Amino acid sequence: MNSTSSPQAETNTSYFEHDADIGIIGRGVTIEQSFEAAARAMFAIITNLEAVEPSTVVTIEFEESDTELALVTWLNLILGKAREFGMVFNYFHLEHSNDHWQGELRGEPWRNELERGTEVKGATLTMLSVKQTGGFWEARCVIDV
To answer: CA torsion, points 111, 117, 123, 124, in degrees to nearest 10?
Structure first.
């Protein structure tokens, strides 16, 4: 796991139009980096990531053979941990070997000074796609808000 504690740049994240919900896109050189970028995109909807102190570490592990389902699982597990611990995250690191995925999240408990953006209910299977394009990985799905 990466031991740096600074927030990651949001340059590999973007959004796409979807009726009532929000489509997110994460891009990276590796599939893991694209998933990390998708998580940043999702949490950037929730709050200003630069204001979050990455002081607390939370880990996640799961098994999934399908890469598209792994994206939705990853995002929903992160949301679950955020709700369970009353936290917001701004650092995401993911590794995988075969069907085993292991992630590290960093953030802090919600505090009054943090801006509350749009509540994210969960990642969905709508417009779900994980693919390699031109040497980069792109992970996208619709987020239910």
So the answer is: 150
Instruction: At 64, list the tokens.
Output: 């999934």
Question: The sheet that has 87-97: what strands, in order across it?
Answer: 56-63, 100-109, 87-97
List the Cα angle 77/75/103 in 5-degree steps: 65
Amino acid identity, position 61: E
DSSP state of 82: H
Average pLDDT, the chain: 92
Is the pLDDT reported for residue 1 higher than 60? no
Using a pLDDT cut of 70, give the percent of the chain over it: 90
Residue 94 · residue 32 · CB < 8 Å? yes
In the prediction, which pLDDT does 11 show?
66
Q: What is the pTM of this model?
A: 0.87
Q: Please identify, in words, the CATH class of the domain defined by 13-144.
A: alpha beta
Give the separation between CA 95 and CA 108, rounded to whole angstroms: 22
Domain spans of the chain, in order of start: 13-144
Q: Where are the alpha helices (DSSP H) in 2-142?
A: 31-46, 67-85
Distance of alpha carbon 10 from alpha carbon 99, whole angstroms: 27
